Amino acid sequence: MPDLLEVKNLKTGFHTENGFLPVVHGISFHVNQGEIVGLVGESGSGKSVTSLSILRLFHDTHGEIVDGGILYKGENILTFSEKKMTKYRGKELSMIFQEPMTALNPVLKIGKQMRETIILHLGMSKKEAHQYAIEKLKSVGIPRAEQVMEDYPHQLSGGMRQRVIIAMQISCNPSLLIADEPTTALDVTIQAQILKLMEEIQEKTNMGILLITHDLGVVAEICDRVIVMYAGRIVEEATAVELFENPKHPYTKGLIESAPKIGSKKDRLNSITGTVPNPNNMPKGCKFAPRCPSAMPICHEKEPELMADGDHTMRCWLFDEEVEKKGEMQYG
Amino acid sequence: MSNLQTETITMEQMKTNKDNRFLQFWRLFRRKKPAAISFYFILFLFIMMIIGPFVTPYDAAEPNYTSVLETPSASHLFGTDEYGRDILSRIIAGARISLSVSFCAVTLGAIVGSILGLISGFIGKRVDKLIMRTCDVLFAFPELILAIGIVAILGPGLKNVIIAVAFFSVPSFARIVRGATLEVKEMLFVEAEESLGASRLRIMLKHVFPETLPTIIVYYTMNVGTAILAAASLSFLGLGAEPSSPDWGAMLSVSRDYIGTAFHIVFFPGLIIFLTVLAFNLLGDGLREMLDPKMKD
Amino acid sequence: MWQYIVKRLVSLIPLLLVVSFIVFMFIHIIPGDPARLLAGKDATAEEVEMARASLGLDKPLYEQYFVYLKDTLTGDMGYSVKSGAAVSELIGDRILPTLGLTFLSIIWALVVGILIGVISAVFRNKWLDHLGMFIAVSGISLPNFWVGLVLIQLFSVQLGIFPTGGAEGWKSYIMPSFALGAGIMAMIARFTRSSLVESMKQDYIRMGRAKGLGSRQIIFGHGLKNSLIPVVTVAGLQFGFLLGGSVVVETVFSFPGLGTLLIDSIQFRDYPVVQAEILLFAFQFIVVNMIIDIAYSYLNPKIRYE
Prior knowledge:
The structure holds three protein chains of three kinds. By secondary structure, chain A is an alpha/beta fold. Helices cover 32% and strands 23% of the residues of chain A. Chain A has eleven helices and twelve strands. In chain A, the strands form two sheets. An eight-stranded mixed sheet of chain A has the order 6-7-8-3-9-10-12-11, sandwiched between helices. A four-stranded antiparallel sheet of chain A has the order 2-1-4-5, covered by helices on one side. In chain A, strand 1 (5-16) and strand 2 form a beta hairpin. Chain B is 74% helix and 0% strand. Chain B has twelve helices and no strands. Chain B has helices spanning 3-7, 11-16, 21-31, 33-55, 87-123, 125-139, 143-154, 158-186, 188-195, 200-236, 248-255, 264-291. In chain B, helix 4 (33-55) crosses helix 12, helix 9 crosses helix 10 (200-236) and helix 11 runs antiparallel to helix 12 (264-291). By secondary structure, chain C is an all-alpha fold. Chain C has two domains: 11-73, no CATH class; 95-305, MetI-like (MetI-like fold, Orthogonal Bundle). Chain C has helices spanning 2-29, 34-39, 45-54, 61-73, 87-122, 127-141, 144-158, 171-199, 203-211, 215-237, 239-252, 258-268, 271-299, 301-304. In chain C, helix 6 packs across helix 8 (171-199) and helix 8 (171-199) runs antiparallel to helix 11. The longest helix of chain C is centred in the middle third of the chain and has 36 residues, at 87-122. The A-C interface holds A 55, 57, 59-60, 83, 86-91, 94-95, 97, 99, 102-108, 116-117, 120-121, 152, 154-155, 165, 168-169 and C 200-215, 217, 221-222, 225-226, 229, 299-302, 305.
C-alpha cells in the first residue's frame, strides 16, 4: 500500500517583479495513515508554504509549485485539474489554519459555514446536514451545539472557534489533516485542550495529521515523527523520541535548547543568534552556516546532502564520512 | 508580493534618496501608462492655455455670418457655431476660463481645508471638535446643491462659481488632511521635537505639513476633475460664465438649442470636458497608487 | 439594534437644527432687504411692508427662526413670489417625478456597478478588469448634461425611440436616469472591485478553498457578501452626488422635477421656493444617510448583536 501522503522533491516559490523567488527547495517526506508528523521550523522556513502546496492553495497569490510531486494515496495531485482538486479539498485532504479569529466568515452563521462543506462533499440535504453538523460540533466538545449553529463567529471565543473549524474540517472524514499552527493564536490552557482534541480525533479516525508548528513543545506533546525545516530545506528528520533524545543537526539542538514551554507565543528563538536568511540573499554552502556554532570551512562552501543514519536523517557536514576522515571533524 | 506594493514609494524611501527622489519618482510614474498619458495631455492643455490665442487660426469671439453652423471640415476641424465662430478656437480659448476657474477653486479650497485640517488634527480637543462638526454640517448639503445655493446668494458669475466650488471642497480637504495629520503626529520625531520644546507652529509647518503633502497632492489632483465638472454644470445651468463666453459649460448650455440641427456644437465642447476630467482622474489614480499606499485597493 | 437606531435618530436632531438654521439664514445673507426679497422684485412698497409684518421680519432673529421652524414643521413654507402658490404645493407636485428618477438611477447604478465591480475583481489585472475600470473612470469623468444631450441626439432625434423630455410615461425616465446614474454606477463599480479584492485576501476565503468550495461559491457565497456591506455605505454617500446631478439632468431633459423648479426659481429670484428646496435637498440627503447607516449596522452582524 502506498503512503497516505508522499511529497517528492517539492519546489514552490513566488513570482515577484524581480523574477521567481523559490521558497521551498525540493523537499521530500511522507505521512503514514494514523500518524502525526510534526513539521517544525522558524517563520520563514517554508513550512507554511509547504502545507499550502499540499492543498494547492495559491489562489489570489503569486505562488506556484514549479517541480516535484505530491502523491496522495499514490495519485499525484499536482496533475489534477483544479476541478478535481476542489473535490479533494475538505473531503480527502483538510486543513486548519492559525487564526481562528479570521478563518471564519464574519457575516455568515456558524451553521451555514458548517453545512456548506457537508452538503458539498456528502451530498446531504440541508436538513440532514444540519443534524450532522450538530453531531460533529458535539463530537469536538462544543456544548449547546444547536445554539452555536445559530451564532456568528464573533460571538464565540477563540478556542471555541478553533473547535468549530476542526469540526468543520473533519466533518467529511478526510484521510489527511494539515494543521498549520493550530494553537499558536490561543491561550495556554486552550492550547493544551485543542492538542488533546486533535490526538483524540486521530485515535478515533486513524487519519494522518501533518502538524506545522514552530513550537517544539507542541511536537513533544503529540507527534510520532518530526521533520525540521530550515530555509526551505529539510535539515533533520527522526522519530519524536529519537529527535529529542539524540538531536544531530546544530539547528535542531538550538531549537530544543531554546524550546519555549508549551503555551509560549514566541516565534523567535533566543539561543540561536541571527535570523532565517532572506530568500533573496541566501548564503552559499549550508544555509544555516552563518548562524551555526559548529560551522567549518566547508559549511560556507558547499551545501551538504541529506545523510541517513537508520531512520534518522540530517543535512550537516558534521556527519559526513568524507569530512570525518579528513579529520576536520569537531563536534560542538 | 504584487507589483503595486513594491512600486509604492514610501516616505522613508523618499527620504533616503533625497537627491534623486524626483528622478526616481518620475521613472516609476512613467511606467503607469494611463497616468503618464494623462499628464502629457494636461501639460498640452496648459500650453494651449498660454499660447492658445496666438496659434488658433480663428478669433474665438468674432462672429462670421458667412460660415454659420458648418459641420466639421478641413478648415474648421470641429465645425462652427451659430455665429460662424470656429469651435476648436473657442474650445482652446475656453481652456483658459474653465481650467483657471477650477484651479482657483480647488487651490482655494485646498488651502483653507488643509489649514483647517492641520489645525484640527494637530491641536485636537475642542478646536478639532468645532472644525469637524462644522464640516459635518457642510457635508449635510449635497455638493452641487451647496454650490447652487451659494451662487443663488452671491449671484451668478465666474468669481462666485470659484467661491462656491471652493466652499464645497473645504470640508473634504479638512477631513483628509486631519486624518493624515493625526498619523504624522503618532510618529516619533514629532514627539521628540515636542519634548525639545519646539513651538507648535514650527512643528506643524516644518514637520507635520510636509508629511501630509503627498495626501494633499493626490487629493488636489482628483478634486480638479470634480471642480471642472461642477463649474461646467453651474455654467450649463446659467449660473456661471456668461452664455456668450467660450467657457466649456456655457458653450454646451447655448448649444442645446441646436441639438438635432448641428450636433457637432454639442459634441465637441462636452468631449473636451470629458477628456480633461478623465485625464485629471487618471493622473490622480496614478499618483495615489504611488504616494498613498493606504488608499489603494 | 433598536437602541442603536434610537441613538442614531437622536443624534440627528442637532444636525437638523443647525442645517435648518443655515437655510433660514439664507434669506438674511443675500444682500438686500429680506422683506423685499420675499415679496418679489416687482412688489410695491405696501406689499413689502405686508410681507415684513406677516413674516415677522421686524422681530429679533432668534424669534424669526422659531417661527420659521414651526412653520416648516407644520408644512408651511411660504408662498411663491412668481405664482403666489403655496411653496409646499409647488414642491408636492414636483417631488414624485424626482424621487422616481433618482430611485431608478440608483437601482440601475447599483446593479450594473456591482456587476462591473465583481467582474473586474474576479478577472483582476486581466483585460476584462482593465475594460471595467476604464468604463468606471470614464463614468466618473463624464459630464452628465453632455451625456443627456448626446442621448437626446441619438435616441430622440435620430432613432426616435425616446421623447426628448418631460415626465410622461416610463419612456421619458429612461434617458434621464441613465445620464444621472452613470457617475454613481462608476463609483460603485470601483468601490465594489476594491472591496471584493480586499475580501478575497481574507483568511476565511482561503479557509473556504480548503473546505473544497468552488470559485463561484467562494466569490458569491463568501467574498461578495462581505464586500457589499461597505458598498452600501458608499452608495449612500454618493446619493448627494445624485441629488446635485438631478438638478442638471432635469434641466437637460426639461424634466418637471425639483431640480428644474430650483433653477427656475433662482433665475426668477423666487427666494421662498429656493430656500424651501435647499432645505428639502439637505433633508433628503441626511435622511438617506441615516437609513444607510442603519442598514449597514443591520447587515453587519457584529453591530447587530453588539
